[in-house]
Amino acid sequence: MAETVSYINNYVKIYVWKLAAYIAGFASLAIVTPRVTSSAALFGIFSFCMSLNIFFQYADLGFINAAQKYASEYYGRRDQDGEIRVTGFCCFIFTLFIVPVSLFILWISFYPELMIKGISSSPEELQLASRLLLVLFLFSPVLIAQRIIQIIFAVRLEDYYPQRINIIVSLIRIASVFYFFGNGRYLLFEYFLFFNLLTIGAILANIIIAKKRYNYSFLYLLKCCRFSKELYNKTSKLAYNSFFLSLSWIIFYELDLLYIGYFLGKNEVAYYAIGLTLLRFFRDAFGTFYYPFVIRFNHMVGRNENDALSNLYKTLLRIGAPITVIPSVAMIVLMKPLILSWVGPDYENSIFVAQVLATSFLLSFITYPAGALLTAREQLRKLYLNATIQPLIFMIGVLATQHFLGISSYALFKSLAIQVNVFLFILYSARYLNMSLVSFFNRYMRQLIPSVLFIIGFGYLAGKLIHAQKGLYSLITVGICLSVSVLCAFTIYYFVDVEFRNFLKSTLGRLMKKDKQQIA
User: Fold this and answer.
1) Which sequence ranges are marked TM in the entry (predicted)?
2) Quick check: 222 pLDDT over 90?
């Protein structure tokens, strides 16, 4: 029980600091984005160039994900030597493959007109694209250090330490906007360069924390940053599976702006980027919620705690349902006033796209834990099936319809592919829990109906009353309406779902008991 309470405390700390980070992130969206988007063409170029960063994120061929899984298992067995060795090996693989990606970005920086439709006639646009891509190339080694920091803190379920540093970075970033975008200035390149310099400072701070708190030997990590046949044999199967999943993820989630920039142009990139920004906000928020539990899945698999794994999975489905469904529905219903007050009527084309993209996360309480469970149990065939279906539906649909649906086709077929994936994960979950589909719906989804109906009604009335126009006051008004609808819907769910209510009371009771023991 002591260990369970300890992990609950870690979960709470992660969520508290991540919530603070998201408040800072929301402030960034409210203050930074309206200034950055004042020129749709330049913002489209900026968004396109930033999307190329994804090639760095997945240059490890899946070995970083494998490193995190096995490092978690080593940590669960209190084997720091094994943890550092597997981390060093996988960072070596990452370093090996990041070089050609960096060179590709460097080459593109000299010929950006080959990648972005319609910028060859503007020297200003060409120069901006070239300089942004050059910064991506120069700062690519920073990603290796970021991955190491991520693994070190994540396997210990103490991500809240780097989160504190990230909050400081976000606040400095917000403050800098008034210098880079104000009084006639529109310094996108300088802003991006400054942000990357802040990232280096954050990494150095996290290294100092890890050294002092865990006595982590970075010198030994550097010695372990080499090829090991033993570790290759151990990690390669899961790594290549992870790489296949990552490749599928890249094609499906991360290249939209590249496709749109190449086929449709820079303005369409800007319109789609607004919806994509909100989608990534959802993805980061839900990913943060489930991330500690993914690590716990690996701990339990490493210790062969099958019953505990099954019980945790049931709990995640129960508590995750309102946490993912309610905010998603609220955002969809109030999307129009949100976008009009956030970036103005020039981005009205973004409203439908953003609404459709938001539907992708309605049932995230199923996809996140189900995907983590399959990965932890190394059920690779099921993962391959899901990873193949999504990009196929998306690419076939987009190629067939983008010439007459435009950017809407990207949102529509992305959402359709995700809903197919959701259905497959429901089948997997019901089979794992030995339940019928009807029983699964009654147990985990039916209780949401009253809350969803309330949000739809409240959002309809609020949408009629709000006269949205670009500005902070109007954005705050929409934010208050969103918050009220979500809080009221959660209150309704709290009284409708007895198991959810009992879980919250039990968890709060254990936390309070732990605090009293610490005081005593």
Assistant:
1) 12-33, 39-59, 86-108, 128-153, 165-182, 188-209, 238-264, 270-294, 315-339, 351-371, 383-405, 411-428, 448-466, 472-496
2) no
